[in-house]
Amino acid sequence: MEKVFQRPLSLKQEPFRYCPGCGHSIIHRLIAECIDNLGIREKVIGIAPVGCAVFAYDYFNFDMLEVAHGRPPAAATGLKRSLPDRIIFSYQGDGDLAAIGTAEIIHAANRGENITVFFVNNATYGMTGGQMAPTTLIGQRTTTTPSGRKAKREGYPLRVSELLATIEGVSFIARTSLSSYKNILETKKAFEKSFRYQMEEKGFSLVEILSPCPVDWELSPGDALLWIQKEMTSVYPLGTFKDRFRETG
Fold it and tell me: Which pTM was predicted?
């Protein structure tokens, strides 16, 4: 009998504890599949901060480092420079990367550090109670914006991918989504490219993933995916924002 499905070797035999409909479990599997396909599991070191990503070490079957909120790019820089033969990635949420870690990610990108960053954008602080994040949409209700985010009061959603794409040291920036099977496949392709660019010493790569948080959005898992398609992608369009080594012709 032909085997058509198996757990990636880069994932432990451990049930996910994420909320129903959460995107982290899908993203974990995609990362693990890419690592297996590239044959780099023994060389990979992942970095996760405070937030829902703090549980990542329970699930990935390779070395994981836990660091302070917002500091994965700094830790990744140190690891990559001291262990240049390793494949280093950070796994960060929007509250982590786009708020307390804004300076860290901008300067790591500006230095062109040869690292890979996976940026999970669910437009909320998922773990700490559903507060407004820098990526929260205008009009979106959170526990700290119960009447909806207002530009005059809380500012505008921060478009991280567009911002980082303007930096010279960046090699690859893409925004993908988990809102459909097609988009999940595109996400996996972007993940693999970001790993390959690091393996080829091409510099800094970041993939932003629009990911559902049904519990904090107060939606069903199915409606959360529709909300990404109807609301989030109008503010955060999908696509590649920078690819310095794109093949042409």
Answer: 0.95
